[in-house]
Design brief:
By secondary structure, the protein is an alpha+beta fold. It is built from six helices and seven strands, in the order ααβαββαββααββ.
Length: 207
């Protein structure tokens, strides 16, 4: 499958599948917690279920806010997005007990697609350090540099060709559509996205 062979409807469907995949876990946990509240009589168990519901609801909200900007329209054509708002939703999406985000960008209004590109680069960075670590963001020419450092950090083999728009290998499915979409965003912004190992870190650039 080449870049030109992915129809708009297929791209939309795959991105929607990706968003649903991200939301299934926290929403499912909310449902499970509600079922426990309805069935259990033990106060300690009910308190545990309530805590699970609160935590899962916050997670689902953070993921929805992130996906709205990273994958959605997020305003009319030509709209700009505040990088301060982008930082807030990125922290909500990425940061937890294992992963921390160092945001080294000045607050500014940037073109919508540039911010979407940055957020999608952060998704790839997060996936490159499955055991957690540190992700840093900085300006890089007319684009960005995102560095992910953590135990066993690695670049998934499918990501570099997908960023370049090459789907001739394993093709594109709901899991692989995100790096492919990141490449599309980069080219729409007039920059080139790439990813590589540098020492013990995964470095993504768009310039």
């Amino acid at each position: 499958m080449s870049e030109s062979s992915i129809e708009a409807l297929d791209l939309a469907a795959l991105l929607c599948s990706r968003v649903c995949h991200d939301l299934i876990s926290p929403v499912g946990a909310i449902v499970n917690g509600l079922e426990v509240l309805e069935e259990e009589k033990d106060d300690a168990t009910k308190e545990f279920a309530l805590d699970l519901i609160k935590k899962s609801a916050r997670t689902a909200s953070a993921k929805l806010q992130f996906c709205r900007i990273a994958f959605g329209a997020a305003g009319s054509a030509g709209a700009q997005i505040d990088t301060g708002d982008a930082e807030t939703i990125a922290r909500g999406f990425l940061e937890d007990d294992k992963t921390k985000l160092a945001w080294n960008l000045p607050r500014a209004l940037l073109a919508k697609n540039l911010v979407k590109l940055l957020l999608n680069m952060l998704v790839i960075a997060g996936q490159a350090i499955p055991r957690g670590g540190r992700i840093s963001v900085e300006a890089f020419g007319s684009g960005f540099k995102v560095t992910a450092t953590g135990t066993n950090a690695k670049v998934p083999p499918a990501v570099p060709p997908l960023l370049a728009g090459d789907t001739a290998g394993e093709g594109v499915d709901a899991h692989r559509i995100q790096p492919f979409y990141t490449g599309l965003l980069a080219r729409a912004c007039g920059v080139q996205a790439s990813v590589a190992m540098q020492d013990e870190s995964v470095v993504l650039t768009a310039r």
